[in-house]
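Researcher: We're reviewing a set of sequences before deciding which ones to prioritize for further study. For each one, I'd like a predicted 3D structure that I can look through quickly. This is HTH La-type RNA-binding domain-containing protein. If possible, include the structure in C-alpha cell form so it fits the rest of the review sheet.
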Amino acid sequence: MEVDLVPQQLPFIEQGLHSLVLPGVKIPALQSKIIDLLDTYFCNKEIASILKTASAKHPNCGYQNGWVPAALLASFKSAKESRISPQAFVVTSKSCLPGAFEVSPDGNCLRRRVSFNQRNIADVVRGSVVLSSSCVLVNGIPKDAVDLDFISYVSEKYGSVERFQFSPRNLSLEFKSCHIQFKDPQSMIKLLAIASFTFEDHQVSIHASSFPSTTATNKKQITVAPSLPTFDFNHPSLTSRDPRSEPIKQKGQSAVQAAAILGYPLNRIVKFGPIDIAKTGFTTSSLQTLSRAEFEKLAPVAECIVREGEIFGYIRFKKGIAKEIVEMTMRHGGIGLGVLGDKVPLVAMQGEEERLFYEVAKERERVSGGNLAVAAIKAVKARRSLAVKQGSKRKGAKKGQNVSIKSKEPERKGNKRMANDEDEDEAMDGDQPSRTIAEIRKKRVKVDDLEELITGMGAFK
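Model: Here's the predicted structure for HTH La-type RNA-binding domain-containing protein, in C-alpha cell form for your review sheet.
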C-alpha cells in the first residue's frame, strides 16, 4: 500500500477529540465506546507506541508514516471485550469525527489529521452515565422535618443542588426519603463517601440513584421508578488501603488504556443478597464470618463486609475472578450460606458501579487521611507516655529493692566493706558449702595476751 508522509505539524485541538462530536447528536453506546478508544490510541502520548507496535507486527509495510491498521486496533483487549470490529473503527471515525482521521484507499487503515491530548479522568467521570446523573437517594429523613431546611443544609455543606424530589407523604411512616440531583458530580461523590450523616438528631443514609422522571396525566404528577437501580455503595474496598494511584496495566494494554478504567482493581467484587438478617437469627458479625467461610471454599477472600441494617453483603477476592465465580455458582442457583436455607444470588460488580466505587474510595481516603494521621500521632504519644511510666515504675521498684537489702545487712562497727565482702555475699546465695566457708572467714580470730601487749605498746612510739 502506498502511503503519504505525515505532515510535519498537525493542528492541535485544545478541547480534545470529543469536542469534534457534533452537539445534539445522540450517539449509540458502541460508537461512544469507539470514540473513547480512538481518543486513547491516537492521543499525543500514545501515538508513538501504537505506530511502533504496528511496525513491529508488519515490518514490510509503511506504517511508520502514521498509518495504523484498523485490525490492530480491534486486536487490543479493550476492543475485544466490547466486540468491536475493524470496520466499526473506520465507520465511526468518518461519521462521528469529521476531519479528525484519514482513511486509506483500501479502507483498512486510519491516520490522524489533528493532534490532541487524551481526555483526563475527571472529564471521563463527568461524562459517564451514572456520574453524570449526579443524583443520590437520601433515606431516614424525619417526617416532620421542613423540606427546604433539609435541602438548604445539604446545599450549604456538600454542594449546589440542581433539583430535588421528596417521596409522597405517608402518615403511617416515621421517616421520608428524597432524591437530590447536584450540579457537580463531585458533590455526589463527596456525599456518598460519608455514607450517612446526622440531621435533627436522626441518622440518614445515602445511596446512589437516578432522578425519577415525572409525567403529567390529568393534571396529576405520576412518579415513574428510576431507570437505574438504587445501589448501596458501602463497598468493601472503599476503606481498604490498597494503592490505586497507578493504573492496573493488563496484558496487551498500555498504561493510558488502563487509565481509562480509572486504575481500580477489576473483577474482584461480588455482591450477594438480599438477606434478611433479622429472620436468620444471626448477628451481623456471625453472618459475616459464615459468609466468608463459604466463599473461602471457592477462592481466597481479601475481605467480607456485612453491615447492620443492610440486606446486601460484599466479598472482595484477592484475584480478579469475580465474574467467573458468579458464573460458576449461578449455574447452581447461587451459593448456600450454611443454615440460611435457600441459596443466595450473586452479582459481579463492574462497569459504572466499579467506577463510582473508585471515586467514592478516593474521597473516603482523602477525608479520612487527616483523621488517620491524628490518630497515629496520638497512638505514638500514648505509647511513649506508657513507656516512660513503666520505666519510672521499674526504676522505683529496683531502688526500693536495693534499700530493703541494705537495711537487712548487719552492722559492722569498725570494719570497712571490701570488694571481697561482696563476693562473699554472692557466694552465700549459692550452695551450702560456699555459705559455710564465707561464714568462717568472717569470724574474728582471738589473739593471746602477749600479742595484745605488743600491739598496745606500739601506740606510745
